[in-house]
Amino acid sequence: MLPARRLAAGKLGRWAMRSLSTAAKQAPIAMPSLGQTPKTAEGARELYDKWAQSYDETLRSWDYPAPAQAAQLLNLHLVPGGTSGPVLDAGCGTGLSGEALHAQGFTRLVGIDVSEASLKLCKTKGIYEQLEICDLDCSAGPLQFEDNSFSGVVSVGVFSYVHNFERLFKELCRITAPGGVVVFTHRHPLWGEDVDGVRSAAAALEANTEAPRWVQLLVSEPQDYMPCNPDPAESSKKINYIVHRVL
Ligand SMILES: C[S@@+](CC[C@H](N)C(=O)[O-])C[C@H]1O[C@@H](n2cnc3c(N)ncnc32)[C@H](O)[C@@H]1O
């Protein structure tokens, strides 16, 4: 039997295939600047401001499965009735992750992002009750939310631009109500190799005896990220899905 916090690759694979089979198929669109962008909040702001208008079409052409899979994981791990509080979409971009959350029944959504153009586009979809500019590296101090504001937090495709995980994870624990669930994706080698102390920062919160505190529920096997990106350097990238419950 597999350890509780790891999901069998086969099980996750079938889950991935279900999600891919419903994605719209179109010719993969090239996006050469993706791999050249500095992995910082400033780099992200510049890239995603320029990309906002065509981001959804591009990602759909790459069969991007992560938003749907992260939303399914939140649904799987939240206790029944846990969907009533708001869910924070941290790094919501143009709202693909919000659309996936909505499809899973999460209708109270708050989105934050560094890209103003992405947030503007997101607003036109009408699925978030609140959208705000925010740097997840907490460069301006603590996140702008009260303690225990959310039932869940989802962050999809964002953490390769973030570096201060010690501060961010404490903040995510603070703003998530006890029993709430935090789901994020991270690039496979960055998580596995503990780059920027991401894994250590997550583990430190498990070792705490009082808040901020969480317990790890799942680290998935590496999964496809953007499998139909026409650039082989990008299509070969893998991500882990990581889930914690706030205590
Ligand atoms: C690959 S997109 C993912 C967007 C959305 N979650 C999705 O799955 O389609 C990455 C998003 O992270 C945002 N981002 C990157 N660094 C950030 C930071 N430090 N703080 C907040 N948002 C950030 C970008 O602006 C962009 O919208």
Describe the structure.
This protein is α/β, with parallel strands linked by helices and 247 residues long. It has one domain (9-246): Rossmann fold, CATH 3.40.50. Helix content is 38%, strand content 19%. The protein is built from nine helices and eight strands. The chain has helices at residues 9-21, 41-61, 66-77, 96-103, 116-125, 165-175, 188-192, 198-207, 232-235; strands at 87-90, 109-113, 130-133, 150-155, 176-187, 214-219, 223-224, 238-246. Strands 1, 2, 3, 4, 5, 6, 7 and 8 form an eight-stranded mixed beta sheet that branches. Strand 1, helix 4 (96-103) and strand 2 (109-113) form a beta-alpha-beta unit. Helix 3 (66-77) crosses helix 4 and helix 6 packs across helix 8 (198-207). The protein is globular, with a radius of gyration of 17 Å. 43% of the residues are buried. Mean pLDDT is 89; it is low at 1-21. S-adenosylmethionine (SAM) is lined by residues 41, 44, 48, 66-67, 91-93, 96-97, 113-115, 118, 134-137, 156-158, 161-162. It holds the Pfam family Methyltransf_11. InterPro entries: Methyltransf_11, SAM-dependent_MTases_sf. One of its GO terms (molecular function) is S-adenosylmethionine-dependent methyltransferase activity.
